[in-house]
Amino acid sequence: MPHNIAILGASGYTGAELVRLIATHPTFRIKALTGDRKAGQPMSSVFPHLRHMDLPDLARIEDIDFSQIDLAFCALPHATSQAVIAELPDTLKVVDLSADFRLRDAEAYAKWYGKAHAALELQREAVYGLTEFYRDEIRAARLVAGTGCNAATGQFALRPLISAGVIDLDHIIMDLKAASSGAGRSLKEHLLSAELSENIKGYSVGGTHRHLGEFDQEFSAIAGRDLRVQLTPHLIPATRGIVMTCYLHGDAGTVFGVLSRAYADEPFIEVLPMGEIPQMKDVRASNFCHIGVAGDRIPGRVTVIATLDNLTKGSSGQAIQNANLMLGEDETLGLMAAPVYP
Amino acid sequence: MPHNIAILGASGYTGAELVRLIATHPTFRIKALTGDRKAGQPMSSVFPHLRHMDLPDLARIEDIDFSQIDLAFCALPHATSQAVIAELPDTLKVVDLSADFRLRDAEAYAKWYGKAHAALELQREAVYGLTEFYRDEIRAARLVAGTGCNAATGQFALRPLISAGVIDLDHIIMDLKAASSGAGRSLKEHLLSAELSENIKGYSVGGTHRHLGEFDQEFSAIAGRDLRVQLTPHLIPATRGIVMTCYLHGDAGTVFGVLSRAYADEPFIEVLPMGEIPQMKDVRASNFCHIGVAGDRIPGRVTVIATLDNLTKGSSGQAIQNANLMLGEDETLGLMAAPVYP
Amino acid sequence: MPHNIAILGASGYTGAELVRLIATHPTFRIKALTGDRKAGQPMSSVFPHLRHMDLPDLARIEDIDFSQIDLAFCALPHATSQAVIAELPDTLKVVDLSADFRLRDAEAYAKWYGKAHAALELQREAVYGLTEFYRDEIRAARLVAGTGCNAATGQFALRPLISAGVIDLDHIIMDLKAASSGAGRSLKEHLLSAELSENIKGYSVGGTHRHLGEFDQEFSAIAGRDLRVQLTPHLIPATRGIVMTCYLHGDAGTVFGVLSRAYADEPFIEVLPMGEIPQMKDVRASNFCHIGVAGDRIPGRVTVIATLDNLTKGSSGQAIQNANLMLGEDETLGLMAAPVYP
Amino acid sequence: MPHNIAILGASGYTGAELVRLIATHPTFRIKALTGDRKAGQPMSSVFPHLRHMDLPDLARIEDIDFSQIDLAFCALPHATSQAVIAELPDTLKVVDLSADFRLRDAEAYAKWYGKAHAALELQREAVYGLTEFYRDEIRAARLVAGTGCNAATGQFALRPLISAGVIDLDHIIMDLKAASSGAGRSLKEHLLSAELSENIKGYSVGGTHRHLGEFDQEFSAIAGRDLRVQLTPHLIPATRGIVMTCYLHGDAGTVFGVLSRAYADEPFIEVLPMGEIPQMKDVRASNFCHIGVAGDRIPGRVTVIATLDNLTKGSSGQAIQNANLMLGEDETLGLMAAPVYP
């Protein structure tokens, strides 16, 4: 049965990625696309790679007839998103890709995002969208909050280990390598090709990256106590992809066993054979996540490396996976395309 | 109705691209994969990005039971291909991705490839696989010869113009920019990342690129007389994609009209509005070809720029498009995935 | 004898490149750096790669005491440059890196740059800064206009051929591949890494690139008649470098001989052996220009390919080469650093 | 006073980098270049970017008259190097860039390099070439062993901290990002542009990277006890550069103070202001190393990030710095060129 879909904020990278994935989705039909500053333009003038598709022109949100829409993806900037969603019909199913509804605690939101939340009721209603761990809640949800792309990667690596109590919670270090599309289509000097090529730079070093709010919330909930991890993000000269290298205290064999069992039946999470190291390009433009485990010459140390595509599994692919559940479809519908390599 | 597919030479880039595209093809089932030097290995050890798929291990060609196969893609190196295909059951449908059957003339083959053809009968039987221009022949063919990726790009830009007689045949210049995957997964110094990054280099300058053999054959046939174009290929620091910039003598409006009409009903060929210039990334990992036309300040000059992904529309996507026809399927089956951008 | 140098507009790429080159120049001393919006900041906050140098802070132009300055490099944006230079002491030697003084004809300037020139007297005074062809004038000049980087590349390829009358002036086609730093440190969407990586796009197609104004002026002067060339620029996924592929009607041997002789004694222009093709990376971060010549299978056609680094030989290196002459130094002083490879 | 220099193994990247740096060195004169497989060829056929230089052709080592040579750089592969150096006149000063003489302990060498050392006496004679920490020994040495490029980076970050006893020696984690030229000009599949672009992959995970032998040796010597660090290297899509992110237990202010004081008078080591994070591109093609320090939200944790160019400061630049000392020159001679940015 076809479902009518709206994408709010279709002129950014996650919006374009949603359109790309829905292009071959068997039951989703794009009925509305919005882009405030570009309202009135055809999508192909913003993203010429979509010119072969028969898409509605970009519209303003207030011009959309939501009574015809089954589900809306909201790919708007943080803060804008909560204002827009608060005005949508409260029966409309929504998958939000911004950071606005990821943190359940209003204070935590204020701390990490620098201002009070303006839609507290919605914040309480929203379900955290890490599909593999919130399936039942997502199936029943009206509003799902897409996770941070880096937050998703780290959680795939560590949630089962924290649950199983097989790693030392006081020694979790995550070294993050993140490609530039995670910053969106924004005009910032450090995102220029001339600056980023042949470059690597740490940023938000020392515990200031906003996705730490998600790690704090989720890991503490699993651990049953306050848990703080250490995270150093680095911007890398690539367009799509995240690699999270996790330095842990624990037994490698045990860690491998826990991860293997946890994801044995997951369609999108692949735990590699013990000692094999995943590479970022192996998941490009796909909804897959690869995880590798290796022991260390220092006894009791183990390294877990996870990789996914920030725009697909880390954002728009995850959003469609969640929408499939919310609309009663098979979770994998439209998402089984193989990674693009090379 | 499902069709059983074999891929001979699955351990190279075009082989992997075939598998990637077939992963979401509704009626093709991969029944056999071969890779001589890697026979016995699982495909995931050669291409870990395919590890989520349930694929047969790489086998040796002589171990394949072709009685169960409806169509074989042959992604072997030039010269090897003709030897292998000559030994296959002569009822088996074959799409060859090598250069072995592109040239109908035995002498031309010997000239461009430096040795006599060893399967002349097959060479005469083979149909040239430029789908948009050989549809009927391909539908009826047993053996189809995939075109050169650069040759495809140039022909999409120029065939309708030569047919229509709207450009000066003695002044056709093609400046080619080609990404590195066109050279395959071969260990050559100039393909190393350290050599190719921040680099551009012309090669086969002066009329020695082998795809000229295809241009000569096809363009001469259309023109009804010997026709020689000028071509300078350049290797660019990118992985996928071809841009062909064609310098022509002709009227821009007329040229645009001819191309627009020629491709009006083609599902994969997009002629951009007059004056718009296509960019390589807009067709990445897709079966689409974008073509742009611009006039010049010098009267009577026109520039036509065409771009496609060498591994998809230029090779494996084209091969599947042809296989669809040969097996009685809709030509676009499994090929409508949108380009990956950014 | 040391010379005191000021760099006006030091916060852009050409400004940084001037500082880099002067860092090892034996007789130039940087006495003042300006950057209006960043006045008051240390240079290392704008360009941390220069933090080891003992440089003056960025100042405003009006705060510079030009009586202590022997020569000023002006690396300001077009139009700003002419206003600033008009206010400088008229005895100060100036090398301008903008486009403001490249065109001798006021009408040509107005046509290509879209507004009337505001410093016509200076425009007449300025000497065109293509060192190899204007040495004597530059030595005697007070104001030298740096050439366009693409314009320099094309002229190195073609000036001797036009002078010698060995190519057909009505069939000159130049296909340009230009790296992104040529556009400066400007926040434009198409210069983002996520957009430019894996991309190639033609721009200013059809005869609208501003450097055509320089080609028209210089080539017509040599030819003794109006001469118009055809030029298609392409932006490539690289940071530094230009490759100009020139399609010409002429005899390859003759063309090679003319170029070889023309540049036999030039320290920075290398004509490669007949048939060898230059690559962009071979001149990176250096003041060298490599030129290759190849015949074609079509009799009477010849391809000339020239490459240089747009920031060095195409701009800041050329500027220092000119400043050396203006200050009575050896032309090559500070410029003999070998290219950075790989 | 000029010094006559030979470069053994000039056809690789470190050989070419030596030539590049010596091109503007005021007192070094290149008298001999060797390259066994390419003996007889001009250097410009192996590295066309050096064609403007007046260089001797590549020769075989046995054809060099070492009586005319003051110092030889040996840029040969591991294992070959020890065999070659053992045959050189024992009065010849030698800077070896291979791994052959880095480890003082014969057993450690055998363990990390998989075979017994064949020149034990030389191994004992060799001085470890980390200039900033072995100056006096290097000045007096005949044979200096260049350090590993990654080993150099990590030691610049950590040596002063271990010496000062301000970090917990049992919790040292180093996450390494290394560009591809560190692997040399070798034909390996994972170094192909098509494989490495848009890719990141961990390798030698778990304590198997050979440079750990150097860390073990040097850090244990400073600490006065066996010290084992944890290291995860990652190959990144870049050509030059290393970033080492060190996760430490210690007080950030103290750590910053120790590093600042340690390097206050060093010409090539720049400690950035507290909290500033270095970026890889800021040291490209130069002999500089940038180090940044940042505290963490978790008390008692500190992150130190160091970056340098593997081919310059990590290898050939270091070698020249050492040669300067060995030949009685100022240590910085020929090495003060500013980084190439962008």
From TrEMBL, chains A, B, C, D:
**Top-level EC class:** oxidoreductase
The protein's location, in the record's own words, is: Cytoplasm
Pfam families given for it? Semialdhyde_dh (PF01118), Semialdhyde_dhC_1 (PF22698)
The GO molecular function terms of this record are:
N-acetyl-gamma-glutamyl-phosphate reductase activity; NAD binding; NADP+ binding
Q: Which residues form the active site?
A: 149
One GO biological process this protein is involved in is: L-arginine biosynthetic process
Keywords, ordered alphabetically: Amino-acid biosynthesis, Arginine biosynthesis, Cytoplasm, NADP, Oxidoreductase
Q: Which CDD domains match?
A: AGPR_1_C, AGPR_1_N
Q: Does the keyword Cytoplasm apply?
A: yes
Q: In which pathway does it act?
A: Amino-acid biosynthesis; L-arginine biosynthesis; N(2)-acetyl-L-ornithine from L-glutamate: step 3/4
State the function annotated in the UniProt record: Catalyzes the NADPH-dependent reduction of N-acetyl-5-glutamyl phosphate to yield N-acetyl-L-glutamate 5-semialdehyde.
Similarity annotation:
Belongs to the NAGSA dehydrogenase family. Type 1 subfamily.
Q: What is this protein called?
A: N-acetyl-gamma-glutamyl-phosphate reductase
Q: Which organism is it from?
A: Boseongicola aestuarii
